[in-house]
Amino acid sequence: MGIAxxxxxxxxxxxxxxxxxxxxxxxxxxxxxLTFAGIFLATSSVGYCPAYDLAGIDxxxxxEKV
Length: 66
Hints:
Layout: H1 3-21, H2 27-46, H3 50-55
Helix pairs in contact: 1-2
């Protein structure tokens, strides 16, 4: 997972959590957003996304590869 992913995912997660906390989004959609927020936070902290492997996506730029 590239640096951009590791920055964007937590930002989206915090946005989803804020939407739910301020009751802008409620019910099933709110629960779905909280679920995605948890997944985004977990995958960005670990630096690995299983969905990327399944889809064959590599978000690491050439400069980031070791």
